[in-house]
Write a structure and sequence with these properties.
191 residues; mainly alpha; two-stranded antiparallel sheet
Length: 191
C-alpha cells in the first residue's frame, strides 16, 4: 500500500504504522486504497502512494502517542490521502507543525492540488512562515507532475471558488503554488 512512499530506511517504521491503521473503511467501502497512484521522484528515487485511502482514522490516541516522531510523520502523510477532507486537513496541519523531513514534501504538495480550500489556506499560512526552498526543489524535480497539479488546482478554482475569488491572482491556491512551491509559466515550457 505505502511500501514505495517512504525511504527504504523507514521500512520498519512504515510497516509498524500501517499495522495500526484500522482495516474498517468509511461507509464500508470495499477497498482500502484507490487503484490510482500518485508518482513522483525525490532526489531521483521514484516514489508512489495511493491517491486515496478509505480506512477509518485511528480512534485510540494512546496508540498514536506511543509512536516515534518519525512514525507520527508517516501516519500524517498516510492520512493526508484520506477520502475525508476533514481528516486530510487535520493530518496535513499536524504534519506542518512538525520538523518534517524531505520525504513528507510529496504528500504536502499533492494535497494542495485538491478542492478543499481550507487546506490550501492552512498550508499557505504555515509555509509562508518558513523557508520553502526544499518545496521548490521538489516541485522543480517533478516539473511535469507539478504543472499538472497547478492546472488541477486552477480547475478547482474555476469550478468552485471563482465567485469568492473573482480574480485568479487573488486565489490562495495560486499564491501557494507561486510563492511557496515556485510555480512559473516557464516551468510549463520546460525552461
Amino acid at each position: 500500500m505505502f511500501q514505495d512512499a517512504f525511504p527504504i530506511s523507514l521500512q520498519n517504521d512504515s510497516r509498524e504504522v500501517i499495522a495500526i491503521i484500522p482495516k474498517k473503511t468509511y461507509n464500508n467501502v470495499r477497498i482500502g486504497t484507490s487503484e490510482e497512484y500518485v508518482k513522483y521522484s525525490l532526489n531521483d528515487v521514484p516514489i508512489r502512494f495511493p491517491y486515496r485511502i478509505y480506512y477509518n482514522e485511528i480512534s485510540d490516541d494512546g496508540i498514536i502517542y506511543q509512536l516515534s516522531e518519525q512514525q507520527k510523520m508517516i501516519l500524517h502523510c498516510i492520512y493526508s490521502r484520506s477520502c475525508n477532507g476533514f481528516v486530510r486537513e487535520n493530518h496535513i496541519k499536524s504534519l506542518l507543525t512538525m520538523p518534517y523531513e524531505d520525504w513528507a514534501i510529496p504528500f504536502i504538495v499533492k494535497v494542495c492540488d485538491e478542492y478543499v480550500v481550507e487546506i490550501l489556506e492552512i498550508v499557505y499560512k504555515m509555509l509562508t512562515e518558513e523557508d520553502t526552498e526544499r518545496m521548490k526543489a521538489f516541485c522543480a524535480e517533478n516539473r511535469s507532475m507539478f504543472c499538472k497539479s497547478y492546472a488541477q488546482m486552477t480547475s478547482y478554482w474555476n469550478e468552485f471558488y471563482r465567485d469568492k475569488y473573482y480574480h485568479f491572482k487573488d486565489y490562495i491556491g495560486r499564491k501557494l503554488f507561486k510563492e511557496c512551491f515556485g510555480y512559473s509559466r516557464s516551468m510549463e515550457r520546460g525552461n
